[in-house]
Amino acid sequence: MKRAIYILITSVLLACSTEGGEHGDNSSNIEPTAVVNDAERKPFYKFNPVSSAPTAEVESEELRLSFGGWGAELPSFTLTFPEGESKRVIMEYTMGSFGSGPAAYDYTAIIFIRDKATGKMYELTRAFTPFGGMFDATWEKRFYIDVTEYRALLQGDVEFAYYYGGFDATEERAHSFKLNFLLYDGEAGRKLVAIAPLYDSFNNGNSGYRGWAYGVQGHDIEAAERLGERSVTIPQGVTSMELRLSITGHGHDKGSFPDRPDYEPYNMAEFDENSYSFVINGVKQSAEGRIFYSNADNYVQQGTYNYDRANWAPGNPANVQWWSIDMSAVKDGTLTIDVNLPRYESSFDAPNAEGVAQYIVIGDLFLYSE
């Protein structure tokens, strides 16, 4: 099975194809290399990392979060930005209250930005609402996310869309959010050449909740249409690459890991620790991503707010991970990349069974020139 995706960003054309393959890492006998390295970027900040005053700000209204229905078109809004690329952009994300206070539970909220040239929607942030029952109408929490990669898209009238996967909004209480983009001048830094979308369970999920079921027989998460190998044509002039990989675990499966006999899953995939590895151009990498997040310092809420989870915490943005890929990995103008999870055997027979282990996965490769 093979498919091609074409992306036009800043007048550069990329071809991204998907190759089929068996589940898991089929290159375990190949000597590991260090082409992939942790980019050491924070997924978000609790305080603005830029001390100077912004040259401009673009703010949205406060928007109520409620479930829009299965497969429904995402609600959207438009903000107008000054023309000309800012050198750095920080998005201030405010979680808030609608009505007498926020809703009760920790659900998934995702904010997207649309590329006007292609219509493609990119994830700006994935945030999780708090257990809000103890908070009143004045409650809010702010986070700061560096979205400089998308500065070329933040010009003129820009469309944003948002998703909420929860069912707890009422006329009296609901979660809300507000965006404020802080635009800064300064040194230009590296220039974004293109974004190559690699993985997107949100638009191609099989679990019913925008994710990919994990370990269900006949629905391999490593299949070509899910986490299979991707091939990207790298244009001339690209001098560096970074992969933005957003993986969060959900469900309360009681399956097993055949290759981890001493580990018994507790509630897979939300409360269990897992990892992923990379294969670049058929060569396994020594880098390994961790799908687990400590909530030891999370702020007090109701519910299980302080339990560690699969890359997320109630009332916080997701733990998005960034990886740098060395340019030596490009062979004859092409890069192939495969993300692999350990083998897992689900206790469920259907990918959309209630409680099935699943991961919401969005992965984009960013290409830069100096």
CATH topology description of the largest domain: Jelly Rolls
Helix content: under 10%
Mean pLDDT: 91
**Measured distance between first and last alpha carbons:** 36 Å
Structural class: mainly beta
Radius of gyration, in Å, reads 20 Å
Percentage of residues in DSSP E strands: 35-45%
Biggest β-sheet, characterized? 6 strands, antiparallel
Key descriptive features of the protein:
370 residues, six-stranded antiparallel sheet, globular, single chain, disordered N terminus, Jelly Rolls, mainly beta, 1 helix
Structure summary:
The chain is built from one helix and 24 strands. The protein has 370 residues and is mainly β. The longest helix has 4 residues, at 201-204.
Describe the protein in words.
The chain has 370 residues and is an all-beta fold. The protein has 2 domains: 3-43 and 189-369, Jelly Rolls, CATH 2.60.120.230; 56-184, Jelly Rolls. The protein is built from 1 helix and 24 strands. The chain has one helix at 201-204; strands spanning 3-9, 12-19, 36-38, 56-59, 63-64, 76-81, 88-99, 108-114, 121-128, 140-146, 156-164, 173-184, 191-200, 212-213, 229-233, 240-250, 252-253, 268-269, 274-280, 283-291, 316-317, 321-325, 334-340, 358-369. The protein has a 6-stranded antiparallel beta sheet with strand order 1-2-15-23-19-20, with no helix packed on it. The protein is globular. The two termini are 36 Å apart. Mean pLDDT is 91; it is low at 1-15 and 18-30.
